[in-house]
Amino acid sequence: MKIVTWNICCLPKWINQYQDPNKCIYSIIKILKSLNADIICLQELFDVNIRNLFLKYFQNYNIIYENTSSYFYFNSGLMILTKYTCVKSNFIPYKNCCGEDRFSNKGFLYTVLKIKDTYKTVVNTHINNDEPVIHFISPSYIIKQQLKQLLSYIYSLKQFNKQVYLCGDFNSNKNTIIQNIPLSIKQQLYISGFSSEYTQITRLIIDHILTLSVTNDEPTNTTNDKTNVDFINNTTPPLYIFNTNCSDHCMVIKQYS
Q1: 3-state class of 32 per DSSP?
Q2: Dihedral of the CA atoms 217, 220, 224, 229 (nearest 10)?
């Protein structure tokens, strides 16, 4: 099973400071189609016309997206494309937000997939920007609250299965995410998938594909931080690809055997 996550920087061109998304979207689509991934999680897909292109060119996928928008703010920009059967899907908005991110419907999108005889949950999110232009609340506080809400909700999803694939743009490195795991579930929520703090192109890693597993077993050694243990042995290290012609974020690819 191959999973891809990518912040494709598709804000409408009239406010997009990085690029005109209409000039690069076909390159993005071509790259994604060539990967033939089983699950694709996208962030910053705000432009409605570009979203419709994904609906057109990925008709062999089941597509889940959050469509709430108004004259005052954008939708969440989140989309999940999958070749598997979707059993249940939902979007959960974050209770806290700050800066220019308040103009979008920040939250996380998840779907429960039936894969052969098992069920897996995929979660796609985009955490608040850690350096907003204007803000009255500490961005680090907002990020902490969003991560707490996200991880607590994922923990509640154990009723569907004991393994969740968490993808997205976290605007946070490994240490920030680990530090913000709620203490009430820290001993029962295991996280793997983190790589080194920097890629070979010296970019700080803030985009992740993480494997979260829930266990009801009592911890055998409470002095160890179980979140640092890579307990999934049947995965290869994630691949990071940075294409300046497409986005200002790395695309992350992870293959599960």
Answers
A1: helix
A2: -50
> Which residues make Cβ contacts (< 8 Å) with residue 74, sequence separation at least 6?
11, 46, 103, 104, 105
Pairing of strands 39-45, 2-10: parallel
**Given the structure tokens 């969003």, which residue do they identify?**
146
Domain count, the chain: 1
How far apart (Å, rounded) are the C-alpha atoms in residues 235 and 257? Answer: 6
What is the pTM for the complete model shown?
A: 0.86
- Listed in sequence order, the DSSP H helices in 58-196 are 139-156, 174-179
Q: What's phi and psi for 224, nearest 5 deg?
A: -90, 140
Residue 177 sits in a domain whose CATH number is 3.60.10.10
Task: Enumerate residues 6+ apart whose C-beta is below 8 A from 233.
Answer: none
Averaged pLDDT, 102-111:
90
Alpha carbon 139 to its chain's center: 19
Q: What is the pLDDT of residues 108-122, one digit of tens each?
A: 999 999 988 888 899
Any alpha helices (H) in 38-173, and if so which ranges?
Answer: 48-57, 139-156
- Residue 237's contacts (CB-CB under 8 Å, 6 or more residues apart) are 195
Q: Is the dihedral of CA 239, 244, 245, 246 positive or negative?
A: positive
Look at residue 71 and tell me whether its pLDDT is greater than 60. Answer: no
Structure tokens at 210: 């993480």
Q: Are 215 and 204 in contact (CB under 8 A)?
A: no
Task: Give the pair of three-digit tokens for residue 92.
Answer: 């959960």
Q: Which domain holds residue 63?
A: 2-255
How far is it, in rounded angstroms, from Cα 240 to Cα 252? 5
**Distances in whole angstroms, Cα of residue 233 to Cα of each of 192, 197, 255:** 10, 21, 12
Find the DSSP H helices in the chain: 21-35, 48-57, 139-156, 174-179
